[in-house]
């Protein structure tokens, strides 16, 4: 039996399997939530990097677009599988180490899943900003459950209005997903048109009205502050380069995200052609949005200046933080004030302001549904393949992986209680960069180990090579820039990514008695092509060692 036929025949014990109901346009509209990810960190990057922030976004989306061609190729090798690029890359790594494959899939899920909590938290904040004044009781009350200050200053698990409203929005996204991929795609078309419109307007209108000031886009120097806290142009020394690395590191979480378009290969009517088209056109959309929106946002608002100096007590402890204008203001950094600032860029009065904010809320809902669709299918396929607990391989009568979706939802309700969404994003991105490294290297591993396999799309070798180089560039940015977002970011991210080890060991050695599912054995072609699976020899292990060296060196030269 062929690999594809074998997997078509494999079903979860309780129900059927994912259904082929969409074309590349359906995946495009589901992935159209990715441009909304610019809302998550546009303020944080600007307030950290300074004037070159707009260039960070452009360079990062160029990196993401180059990498996408490697993902399109490996997805085409397995048209019968779902769950995203990590599932396809895991097949390359599994014969070189059982733990490497689930590690890649786990890191991909940890990267995508927090979109649910961060997006719903921001959307809830936008709703509250429309309905209530900033100092209203509903915006200020909070019940602190756990103080996490030992991990990062000011971090805590808390319940407030943002959490309650965010939880409601997550349940709405779940209800839409429950109806299956076909109905989800239809909802995404509607949301996509409504939600992408404000981003396009925000990017284009200020350019045509002349509100984008060239002075706000320069000087091309990293952010620095003098002893009084005033904003000055920094230098391109190691400290400045570290800030740049931190900006490129965090931007990758948003700009690389359109690779989610290959999550739905198993649900394409014609995976041979739909996979490449989905990721190509999703990538072109993201290039447009991630270029014009940051330029206009920064060009209109400006970096900002010191408004009120920090208040320091006799011991030198800051009791009241400094207040800044523009992108440096606290609500822009957190993301909560981004929608209001963007709405003001259109200059249409109170009604237009409210309409734009509402449309940006829909943009965040678009991103949430995109993430839930992709991350839940990653959990589903990882369960079918024998990486994660078996209960996750269940789908309902509509072909939706509901148990994986419930797991996603429960995990994100915990994250939604966290008081610092930027820190969550940074931890998540540590996992995302690790996944990207393994997956980009899997492209050349598949070329060596599976030279005769049909490739509906075969990327030029120079693109595979550039993707491999970017795998190490990403690791360098990780090592150098992760801790810009909190002293424990890199270590915490590595610990979280390693949590898959006990989970996989239990599934593989206790539940499955040390044997992979039959379909997974076929995918590793242990039966189809005996002895053909490890032609790469020591190269994968050397790639891992070099990757570790890159992170260590980058971390050692960083200056914070």
Structure explained in plain terms:
The structure is a single chain. By secondary structure, the chain is mainly α. The chain is 62% helix and 5% strand. It has a two-stranded antiparallel ribbon with strand order 1-2. Strands 3-4 form a two-stranded antiparallel sheet. Strand 3 and strand 4 form a beta hairpin. Helix 6 runs antiparallel to helix 15, helix 7 packs antiparallel against helix 17 and helix 17 packs antiparallel against helix 18. It is globular, with a radius of gyration of 23 Å. One of its GO terms (molecular function) is transmembrane transporter activity.
What key phrases describe this protein's structure?
22 helices; 5% strand; two-stranded antiparallel ribbon; single chain; disordered N terminus; 560 residues; globular; membrane; mainly alpha
Major β-sheet profile: 2 strands, antiparallel
Strand residue percentage:
under 5%
Stretches with pLDDT under 50, minimum 5 residues: 1-16
Computed Rg: 23 Å
Average pLDDT, to the nearest integer?
84
Shape: globular
Number of extended strands:
8
Strand order of the largest sheet: 1-2
Distance between the termini: 57 Å
- Spell out the helices and strands N to C: HHHHHHHHEEHHEEHHEEEEHHHHHHHHHH
Structural class: mainly alpha
The helix content, as a percent range, equals: 55-70%
Number of helices: 22
Main location: membrane
Subcellular location: Cell membrane
Keywords: Cell membrane, Membrane, Transmembrane, Transmembrane helix
Membrane topology: Multi-pass membrane protein
